[in-house]
């Protein structure tokens, strides 16, 4: 099914939303992405990803937490839903399965196996 | 707070996003953006960078603009895309119509653009001088008998005198122009050098790239090169302090490099040298009585810069004071000075000794008229054709209305379609100009470039104009149709009441304008033919001009004798080449006053001058190398001079004395031995002046008459002989070709006008052609019925033609006085000119009439020879 796949950026954003737990909104996510994943993304790119994840039902959002720095505007705060968690777990399981299926000889001389 | 409030995020981004984002997303995104903005500012990121980042990131949110908040915006987007789609379908359906009208519009826009660029360039001359409104050139006028001498230059002391008499003058600067050879090592070029007073750079805006304008002219032996000249001698090396040799002797130190002289300057030069250098040299050569102290020699171009706020008329009023105080007494009553604004010189000044051949305000006016006509003609095409195009779409408009589109939308839809054609034509026109600009430059002898700021303004204006015309063209019929009830429009028979009168007037205007242009271009080419063929008082054919050089000057006699031996050479002489003019000297006739000399051109010619050029001797005899005249010089004068001196009845053996140039000393006394018929020793732009000839065996240019039967072998034998005397390459020029070059400007510009006339004519014919297709198709049924009732085909053809013929005739008759007025205006500028005769008008009229009738013939024939059954069966 097309609508439920997780894109690479989407997966990371979903994870970061989990990391930030109750304070996941645009700027915070951008900052976290930069710090943890060394990834530069514009605010709109992040919002596009968030919007898509919400459409797929992996995220839920609410408006809250206005501050002065934001010119009195509220944040769009995100939270991972149950199905979001399931999607993340699926993605991880799939990867683990794939890792396990790689024959030892294939990566024998590579750094990965050290 | 105060620092952060100074740097607010750009408001327009907020407003822009506000139009396109959902409220929830809008609040979140603006909040995020602002938070980031402030934190960046706090981390001392430069605020321009912060703002830029805000803008870029903000605009990134546009990809989330799913559904505009404003329904109107959405509708507009839909409407535009619908219009575009619909338009492409229309074009596909009627390719030839849209292609041809696009081409016509493109041609007219490109012509308009070219002409405007030309005009703009002409008008911009010398405006680059920052202080140009205050800079004036002093021109000198002098009258001697009936002959006026109008000179661009004044006497050398005039600048000093003006400055001391008139406190309104801030600066006065003199320019003396020479063309010496400059040497640097083995590099040797002839350059155009202006020798100027040291305040040259204070008055004129010629910025220095290297060196200091204040001090560069301090030392007399210095030179300031233009960038181009500096590059020629020194390549990329620093030229400052290097030494150039003038004519192989005088060393000059380079003290500065200036930017190249702009194209739009009436002074062109490669280098500036302080005038003091020249003045000192004259002082050395002639003692204290150096030429620069004399009020006789008009050799210095004098420019003055007025103090700020001084009205030039106040200074003009005081100029006679200077004349009366300083000019030699005998000149005072008949001499006056004139102030010419420097920016007017190029177009409005046409004096003797101009620094550069100027433009002509008349051509600027004529070109504007041509541009105007082309624009009008193509606008009329647009208006007439759009009208019919919209008429043919009655049913479409009806359906649109029936489906609920309101009148405003329909009008907008039709306007956008029209504008699309206009804008496309404009873009194509700009591309066309870019492609052909080098050819146009060749034609008008300019260096125009499309992408300059002033040309950008022209293009912007033109784009606005064409959009306006496109809207005007459709708005009237569009409103008429859009306001009708759909039930009327859907009726098959519906035709809006036809305003044929306005349309006919517009088409008449086109024909009338084309006629005027055509007559005008006929007049121009006739006048130029006239120049080419007018009897000049000498025989210009089979004359070969050869410039002598330093190898030949010592052996001139031997060269001449050898030449005479060839059977293909009729006569060998030398002297001033007709067409180039002669210097003016001061003569005192016998019994005349030394205080009031007569100014007349004076020329030294070789003995066979008259017979070589076949100038007619009226009285007396030709120069004879054997004859002796005691100490007197033999003079031959022309008829004009005899009239001028009042000797027409009995001129022979009278004496004339001539002053040495620039002094009060008598150089020689002469005796008149002959009178010749007037011949045009200057160009035909002015009247024949008096002239005095005296024999001299040395000359700079040999005038050789070769035999008319085999001119080539004559030239070949000169070439063969030349090789024996000089190792330089043999170069020659035919006199008739050189004379034609005097009228180069006229013939070039007439070609330009002819070219654009053809375009205007094409546009008119195309308009008539397209209109005839539309007009005749409405008469198909009428013709069919008539045929059924037995009308003869020729009668129908005659009937259909008559209307067009009458219509064109009226337009032509209206055009006659306009053409006459314009033609006379142009002809007035020539001393010798053609008469406007009716043949010219008839020729142009017939051309237009034929072209007009031919354009309508195709559709006319289709209607007249149509099968009546086909058109009657339809209903």
TrEMBL record, chain A:
<dbReference type="InterPro" id="IPR036388">
    <property type="entry name" value="WH-like_DNA-bd_sf"/>
</dbReference>
<dbReference type="InterPro" id="IPR036390">
    <property type="entry name" value="WH_DNA-bd_sf"/>
</dbReference>
<feature type="domain" description="Transcription regulator PadR N-terminal">
    <location>
        <begin position="22"/>
        <end position="89"/>
    </location>
</feature>
<dbReference type="InterPro" id="IPR005149">
    <property type="entry name" value="Tscrpt_reg_PadR_N"/>
</dbReference>
<dbReference type="Pfam" id="PF03551">
    <property type="entry name" value="PadR"/>
</dbReference>
<protein>
    <submittedName>
        <fullName>PadR family transcriptional regulator</fullName>
    </submittedName>
</protein>
UniProtKB/TrEMBL annotation, chain B:
<feature type="transmembrane region" description="Helical">
    <location>
        <begin position="410"/>
        <end position="437"/>
    </location>
</feature>
<dbReference type="InterPro" id="IPR025857">
    <property type="entry name" value="MacB_PCD"/>
</dbReference>
<keyword id="KW-1003">Cell membrane</keyword>
<feature type="domain" description="ABC3 transporter permease C-terminal">
    <location>
        <begin position="369"/>
        <end position="481"/>
    </location>
</feature>
<protein>
    <submittedName>
        <fullName>ABC transporter permease</fullName>
    </submittedName>
</protein>
<feature type="domain" description="MacB-like periplasmic core">
    <location>
        <begin position="100"/>
        <end position="319"/>
    </location>
</feature>
<feature type="transmembrane region" description="Helical">
    <location>
        <begin position="839"/>
        <end position="861"/>
    </location>
</feature>
<feature type="transmembrane region" description="Helical">
    <location>
        <begin position="362"/>
        <end position="385"/>
    </location>
</feature>
<feature type="transmembrane region" description="Helical">
    <location>
        <begin position="752"/>
        <end position="776"/>
    </location>
</feature>
<feature type="domain" description="ABC3 transporter permease C-terminal">
    <location>
        <begin position="755"/>
        <end position="866"/>
    </location>
</feature>
<feature type="transmembrane region" description="Helical">
    <location>
        <begin position="97"/>
        <end position="119"/>
    </location>
</feature>
<keyword id="KW-0472">Membrane</keyword>
<dbReference type="Pfam" id="PF02687">
    <property type="entry name" value="FtsX"/>
</dbReference>
<dbReference type="InterPro" id="IPR050250">
    <property type="entry name" value="Macrolide_Exporter_MacB"/>
</dbReference>
<dbReference type="Pfam" id="PF12704">
    <property type="entry name" value="MacB_PCD"/>
</dbReference>
<dbReference type="InterPro" id="IPR003838">
    <property type="entry name" value="ABC3_permease_C"/>
</dbReference>
<feature type="transmembrane region" description="Helical">
    <location>
        <begin position="804"/>
        <end position="827"/>
    </location>
</feature>
<keyword id="KW-0812">Transmembrane</keyword>
<keyword id="KW-1133">Transmembrane helix</keyword>
<dbReference type="GO" id="GO:0022857">
    <property type="term" value="F:transmembrane transporter activity"/>
</dbReference>
<feature type="transmembrane region" description="Helical">
    <location>
        <begin position="457"/>
        <end position="479"/>
    </location>
</feature>
<dbReference type="GO" id="GO:0005886">
    <property type="term" value="C:plasma membrane"/>
</dbReference>
């Amino acid at each position: 099914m097309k609508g439920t796949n997780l894109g690479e950026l989407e997966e990371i954003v979903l994870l970061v939303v989990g990391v930030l737990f109750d304070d996941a909104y645009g700027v915070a996510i951008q900052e976290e992405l930069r710090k943890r994943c060394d990834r530069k993304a514009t605010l709109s790119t992040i919002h596009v990803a968030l919007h898509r994840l919400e459409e797929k039902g992996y995220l839920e959002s609410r408006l809250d937490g206005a501050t002065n720095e934001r010119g009195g505007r509220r944040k769009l705060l995100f939270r991972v839903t149950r199905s979001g968690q399931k999607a993340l777990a699926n993605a991880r399981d799939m990867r683990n399965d794939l890792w396990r299926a790689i024959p030892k000889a294939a990566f024998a001389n590579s750094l990965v196996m050290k | 707070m105060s620092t952060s409030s100074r740097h607010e995020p750009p408001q327009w981004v907020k407003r822009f996003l506000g139009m396109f984002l959902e409220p929830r997303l809008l609040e979140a995104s603006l909040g995020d953006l602002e938070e980031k903005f402030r934190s960046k500012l706090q981390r001392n990121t430069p605020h321009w960078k912060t703002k830029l980042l805000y803008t870029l990131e903000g605009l990134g949110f546009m990809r989330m603009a799913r559904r505009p908040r404003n329904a109107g915006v959405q509708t507009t987007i839909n409407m535009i895309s619908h219009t575009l789609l619909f338009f492409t379908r229309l074009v596909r359906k009627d390719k030839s119509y849209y292609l041809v009208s696009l081409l016509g519009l493109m041609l007219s826009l490109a012509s308009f653009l070219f002409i405007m660029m030309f005009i703009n360039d002409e008008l911009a001359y010398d405006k680059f001088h920052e202080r140009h409104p205050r800079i004036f050139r002093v021109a000198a006028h002098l009258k001697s008998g009936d002959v006026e001498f109008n000179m661009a230059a004044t006497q050398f002391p005039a600048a000093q005198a003006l400055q001391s008499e008139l406190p309104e003058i801030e600066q006065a600067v003199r320019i003396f122009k020479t063309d010496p050879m400059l040497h640097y090592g083995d590099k040797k070029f002839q350059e155009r050098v202006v020798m100027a007073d040291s305040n040259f750079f204070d008055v004129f805006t010629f910025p220095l790239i290297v060196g200091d304008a204040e001090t560069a002219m301090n030392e007399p032996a210095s030179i300031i090169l233009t960038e181009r000249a500096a590059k020629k001698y020194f390549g990329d090396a620093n030229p400052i302090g290097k030494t150039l040799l003038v004519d192989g002797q005088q060393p000059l130190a380079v003290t500065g490099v200036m930017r190249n002289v702009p194209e739009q300057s009436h002074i062109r030069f490669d280098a500036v040298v302080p005038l003091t250098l020249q003045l000192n040299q004259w002082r050395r050569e002639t003692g204290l009585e150096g030429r620069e102290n004399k009020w006789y020699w008009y050799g210095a171009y004098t420019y003055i810069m007025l103090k700020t706020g001084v009205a030039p008329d106040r200074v003009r009023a005081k100029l006679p004071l200077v004349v009366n105080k300083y000019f030699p007494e005998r000149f005072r009553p008949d001499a006056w000075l004139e102030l010419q604004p420097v920016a007017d010189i190029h177009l409005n000044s046409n004096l003797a000794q101009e620094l550069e051949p100027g433009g002509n305000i008349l051509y600027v006016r004529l070109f504007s008229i041509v541009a105007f006509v082309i624009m009008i003609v193509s606008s009329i095409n647009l208006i007439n054709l759009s009208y019919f195009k919209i008429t043919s779409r009655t049913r479409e408009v009806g359906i649109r209305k029936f489906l609920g589109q309101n009148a405003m939308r329909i009008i907008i839809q039709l306007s956008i379609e029209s504008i699309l054609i206009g804008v496309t034509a404009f873009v194509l026109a700009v591309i066309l100009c870019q492609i052909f600009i080098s050819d146009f430059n060749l034609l008008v002898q300019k260096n125009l470039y499309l992408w300059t700021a002033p040309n950008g303004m022209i293009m912007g204006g033109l784009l606005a104009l064409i959009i306006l015309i496109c809207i005007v063209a459709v708005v009237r019929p569009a409103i008429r149709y859009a306001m009708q009830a759909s039930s009327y429009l859907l009726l098959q028979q519906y035709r809006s009441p036809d305003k044929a009168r306005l349309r006919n007037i517009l088409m008449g205007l086109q024909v009338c304008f084309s006629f005027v242009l055509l007559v005008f271009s006929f007049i121009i080419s006739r006048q130029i033919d006239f120049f080419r063929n007018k009897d000049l008082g000498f025989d210009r054919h089979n004359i070969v001009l050869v410039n002598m050089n330093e190898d030949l000057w010592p052996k001139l006699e031997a060269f001449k004798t050898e030449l005479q031996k060839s059977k293909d050479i009729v006569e060998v002489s030398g002297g001033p080449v007709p067409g180039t003019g002669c210097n003016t000297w001061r003569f005192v006739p016998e019994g005349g006053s030394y205080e009031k000399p007569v100014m007349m051109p004076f020329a030294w010619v070789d003995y066979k001058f008259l017979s070589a050029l076949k100038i007619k001797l009226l009285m007396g005899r030709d120069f004879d190398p054997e004859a002796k005249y005691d100490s007197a010089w033999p003079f031959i004068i022309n008829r004009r001079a005899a009239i001028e001196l009042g000797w027409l009845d009995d001129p022979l053996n009278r004496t004339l004395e001539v002053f040495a140039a620039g002094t009060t000393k008598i150089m020689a006394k002469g005796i008149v031995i002959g009178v010749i018929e007037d011949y045009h020793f200057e160009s035909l732009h002015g009247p024949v002046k008096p002239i005095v000839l005296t024999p001299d065996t040395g000359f700079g240019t040999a005038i050789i008459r070769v035999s008319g039967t085999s001119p080539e072998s004559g030239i070949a034998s000169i070439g063969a002989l030349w090789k024996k005397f000089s190792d330089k390459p043999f170069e020659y020029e035919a006199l008739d070709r050189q004379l034609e070059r005097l009228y180069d400007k006229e013939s070039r510009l007439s070609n330009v006008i002819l070219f654009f006339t053809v375009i205007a004519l094409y546009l008119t014919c195309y308009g008539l052609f397209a209109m005839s297709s539309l007009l005749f198709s409405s008469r198909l049924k009428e013709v069919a019925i008539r045929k059924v009732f037995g009308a003869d085909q020729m009668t129908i053809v005659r009937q259909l033609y008559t209307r067009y013929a009458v219509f064109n005739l009226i337009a032509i008759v209206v055009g006659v006085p306009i053409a006459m007025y314009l033609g006379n205006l142009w002809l007035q500028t020539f001393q010798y000119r053609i008469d406007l005769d009716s043949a010219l008008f008839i020729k142009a009229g017939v051309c237009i009439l034929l072209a007009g009738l031919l354009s309508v013939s195709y559709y006319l024939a289709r209607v007249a020879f149509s099968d009546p059954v086909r058109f009657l069966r339809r209903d």
